[in-house]
Each structure stands twice: as structure tokens, then as C-alpha cells.
Please model this.
Amino acid sequence: MGKVEALDEELLFQGRVIISETDLKGLITYANRKFCEISGYEKEELIGKTHNIIRHPDMPKEAFAKMWSTIQSGQIWHGLVKNLRKDGKFYWVETEVLPSKNENGEIIGYVAARKVASRKNIEETAKMYHKMKEKEL
Model:
């Protein structure tokens, strides 16, 4: 088995942003066309699934625990995420997740916006995530 390929994110994103929305449990309720295009999944394959469907095994559990803690408290989470496409290739995204609130200020879901991450940020984050993953073992 050969080395898994990284995608050329700049070429793939073409200046566009991946947008998705989830319910309180993290089930995808909306995925824009760019999300489908970059992940390699059809919209029907994403709706009703959690974002785990694209989680790369290199991602440490601690990173997502921090994200959930942040957004469930009503704050915005920002970080880099390595995602896995349906075809087995991967891509890095700079991600911002914010709570979606109703007119009473209650959290009713989450909105995530993702764009291409810089090489420098990817290199720094990959090292940090590798150390975090080693602690999981």
C-alpha cells in the first residue's frame, strides 16, 4: 500500500469556503456544494451523519473534546483539522465553528466554515497533533 496522497488544497478550494450545519448532536443538516466536492461525498451521504464521516485517524480526540467544550459553552472555536475524503486522500482546513442560536439565545445547532490552511500552520499543527495522538496510546 502506497503513501496516502494529500490534495492540492489551493487548487481544490479555488477561493471558496466549505460550509456545513449540524444539530446539537453534531449530525449534519446542511452541506454546501464545495463541502461535497472536496470531501468526495454526495450531499445525501453527508446529511444525517456526524462529521466523523470525514475525520482523519491522525486527528487527536483531545482536539475535538476542546472544540465541543468551546462551542457547547456558546463560544466560537477556531483550529486546523485534517479531514479524510471518501477516496482516502486527505486535506487540511482552517475551521471556525460557531453556535447557532434561536431568538431566546439558546443554542440550536452549529455552523462550521472551513477554508484552505496555510502550509506553515499545517506543519506546526501536524507536529502538535502528533504529540497529542502519542498520549492517546
Observations:
- The first helix runs from residue 9 to 13.
